[in-house]
Amino acid sequence: MPLAKIAPDLFADLSPDARVQLGASAQTRHLTKGDHLFRCGQVAGHVFLLVSGAVRLYRETPEGKVAGLHIVMPGQLLGETELLEDSCHYSASAEIMEPARALMFPRAVFRLAMSAHPVLMLNLLQLSARQVQQMRRDREQLLTLKASQRLGCFLMHLCAERDYAPERFPLPYTKSVLASGLGMEPETFSRALGQLKDMGVHLKGREVEMSDMEAIETRICQACSLSDNCAVRQYLQEPDTAMRLVS
Amino acid sequence: MPLAKIAPDLFADLSPDARVQLGASAQTRHLTKGDHLFRCGQVAGHVFLLVSGAVRLYRETPEGKVAGLHIVMPGQLLGETELLEDSCHYSASAEIMEPARALMFPRAVFRLAMSAHPVLMLNLLQLSARQVQQMRRDREQLLTLKASQRLGCFLMHLCAERDYAPERFPLPYTKSVLASGLGMEPETFSRALGQLKDMGVHLKGREVEMSDMEAIETRICQACSLSDNCAVRQYLQEPDTAMRLVS
DNA sequence: CGGTCCCTTGATAAACATCAAATGCAGTGG
DNA sequence: CCACTGCATTTGATGTTTATCAAGGGACCG
Fold first, then answer.
1. Angle, CA B195 vertex, CA B193 and CA B197 arms, to 5°
2. CA atoms of B85 and B44, how far apart (whole Å)
3. Which of helix, strand or coil describes residue B49?
4. B16 exposed, middle or buried (CB, 10 Å; 0-12, 13-18, 19+)?
């Protein structure tokens, strides 16, 4: 698969030559659930581009608890935050949560490509800026939204971003993984689901069913500070608009 | 003040010419508490570099609540996440919390400088990557640490990063602002302070007094997943080591 | 002296985590 | 096909943490 298909934003405006060259330097890895792409503390020798599947970034406390940081989805990079640091150790562990395929770029190659092609650096910078914004939203939602609202918001975004039919679409990973990504325990997740049933959200296995988008929009988006700036909400209100969803 | 003094990481390795040129394009703004650098939704015409003071990024929900996103400290940029987006509206409001001075760069100038000087782009990328890492830590701490632990961790970092004497150093802003930065209500902050007294932390007005760093290290860092990767903790254990503190 | 602002303290309630146990479901091997 | 095992999910009971509401104290400033 060509790089431009996997992560269009990252490789946008990059010359075909450069793409081929970068692609040639990458190894493809196939991974199954439970595998690790890398572990916290290892020397960060590679940057990974997730092609399919799902990866969880996490760390462990001295007391032995695991703290989930982030769920990485296809098209996103892993190890990119370590790309430019001098002390090059991964700052988190990356565990496969769904059977995955990932491209593995040697760090040095990626850095060279960045120097040689400023466009690549520019794209990286933009992706990074978006990630910062998304994490701000995330942090804010953790503090202001209830579990059920966070879940509802996530499902709405998932549906809109992938252009799924609200009546029926699949979760990209298990409920437990989703719960950890949303910063809650599986039990809380399960109970949050119950509350969403009132708003016409049903989740059987991995199949999502959202019948009443309006109910969701009023009962969730009202509490979210993105409000009018939320691309998904704009989409709901005016589905015709050409959509360029950021987050 | 030269740019290199204000934000050494951002302008590192930038040619003196370029610095002067960038500096010349900037206006200096003096602001007092309650002023706004910009408001959510306005056209993002500028990038700001905070020279002194403190700024709070926040948004408002349709229901009228304010949601704090981040406290910006001197040396950091504001509006940088909007720098590369096509739809150029600020995604948050920036309110002055401490009398501040800020440099105001026209967005276009900053972008041109980036194109002309790849080093600047590289520095931006590194800063952005660090910010992502810091926000991951932040999110994790919100989910795993109690209020008093978050506060203790913050004070430790503040003390170590600025090379203050633990026996007595000042807070950079008021307790309320700090509370909002740590994602808690002022009441919770106040009670958290009470719990930290057991660990030898006293806070009178804006003066901090930390007598027993070891107690803090055992009772807080033990619960934090950064553990050995935390620069501050390394510093506490081996103060002689040359310190290059990231966050 | 009265005001405001900031912080503290107390009482109460909401949200969530935690613990424990039951249920369901898929794959395995008989 | 059926029991069996392991894992994910649900449900219930309970405890902890924090937000919220309400009121009081203290400093600063006119």
1. 75
2. 10
3. strand
4. exposed
Nearest to B81 by CA among B15, B146, B128: B128
In angstroms and rounded to an integer, the radius of gyration of the C-alpha atoms of chain B is 19
Determine the distance between A34 (CA) and C27 (C1') in angstroms.
18
Bridge partners (DSSP) listed for residue A95: A36, A56
pTM for the structure as a whole: 0.92
Structure tokens at B65: 């609540």
Verify if strand C has an atom below 7 Å from the CB of B188.
no
φ, ψ at A41 (rounded to 5°): 100, -20
Q: Retrieve residue A94's tokens.
A: 């990356």
3-state secondary structure A148-179: HHHHHHHHHHHHHHCCCCCCCEECCCCHHHHH
Residue A26 DSSP symbol: P
**pLDDT, tens digit, for every residue of A184-217?**
999 999 999 999 998 999 999 899 999 888 888 8
Compute CA distances A232 → A157, A192, A241, B83, B109, whole Å. 6, 21, 11, 22, 32
Q: Are B196 and B149 in contact (CB under 8 A)?
A: no
SS3 of B231, please? helix
SS3 state of residue A121:
helix
d(CA A159, CA A161): 6
Estimate the crossing angle of helix A118-144 against helix A147-161, to 10 degrees: 150
Are the beta carbons of B126 and A222 separated by less than 8 Å?
no
For chain A, give percent helix, strand, coil, nearest 5: 45, 25, 30
Burial class of residue B69, CB neighbours in 10 A (0-12, 13-18, 19+): buried
Considering only the beta carbons, identify the residue of A41, A91, A121 that sits closest to B133: A91
- pLDDT, one tens digit per residue, over A53-100 is 999 999 999 888 899 999 999 999 999 999 998 878 999 999 999 999
Q: How far is A132 from chain B (nearest CA, A)?
A: 6
